[in-house]
Backbone:
């Protein structure tokens, strides 16, 4: 929570904004719900805000070591939730808008460190699956859950389509690819319902 308050205070140059962010986070129902269970959300929130704080501080000090640290922290965030791989480029885009040289140099350092944190998992995935798999094999299933209608119930993974897929396809990489294709097809056929 302190890293979020620090980021908000630095971004808006206002102690009040930092305090409002703390109060908002303390009473955010989603945050309250996840604090009481063992899940990745709280760890991810900490790693993501710490990584952003290091990026902000690295901009202020133009420090390579701070950017390397940010890359390592954001690499751990990517282990936790693979979408975090996009976070550095988004933050650098905001921090270094119209400063293409600083943006590319800084992003290169951050992504080098981030990539190094992913090497052990990449090697493990290559050995397990015989091919490159980026971080995890549940992205397609998460895409189905996030976009297609359904609900958890006894014996049901999310909806009938996902239940059939999970029971019929035992190979993780293939199951993930088929789930991703199923979700994308749903979104293509039902764009308004998806929105």
Residues:
């Amino acid at each position: 929570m302190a890293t979020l308050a620090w980021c908000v205070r630095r971004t808006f140059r206002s102690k009040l904004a930092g305090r409002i962010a703390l109060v908002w986070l303390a009473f955010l129902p989603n945050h309250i719900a996840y604090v009481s269970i063992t899940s990745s959300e709280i760890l991810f929130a900490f790693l993501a805000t710490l990584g952003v704080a290091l990026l902000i501080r690295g901009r202020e000090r133009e420090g390579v070591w701070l950017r390397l640290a940010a890359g390592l922290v954001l690499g751990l965030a990517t282990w936790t939730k693979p979408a975090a791989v996009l976070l550095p480029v988004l933050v650098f885009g905001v921090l270094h808008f119209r400063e293409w040289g600083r943006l590319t140099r800084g992003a290169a350092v951050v992504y080098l460190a981030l990539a190094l944190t992913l090497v052990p998992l990449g090697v493990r995935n290559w050995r397990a699956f015989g091919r490159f798999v980026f971080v995890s094999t549940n992205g397609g299933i998460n895409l189905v859950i996030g976009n297609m209608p359904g609900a958890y119930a006894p014996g049901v993974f999310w909806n009938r389509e996902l239940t059939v897929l999970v029971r019929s396809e035992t190979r993780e990489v293939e199951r993930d690819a088929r789930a991703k294709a199923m979700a994308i097809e749903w979104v293509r056929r039902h764009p308004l319902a998806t929105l």
About this structure: The CA atoms of residues 148 and 190 lie 9 Å apart. The mean pLDDT is 88. DSSP finds eleven helices and no strands in the chain. The longest helix spans residues 100-129.
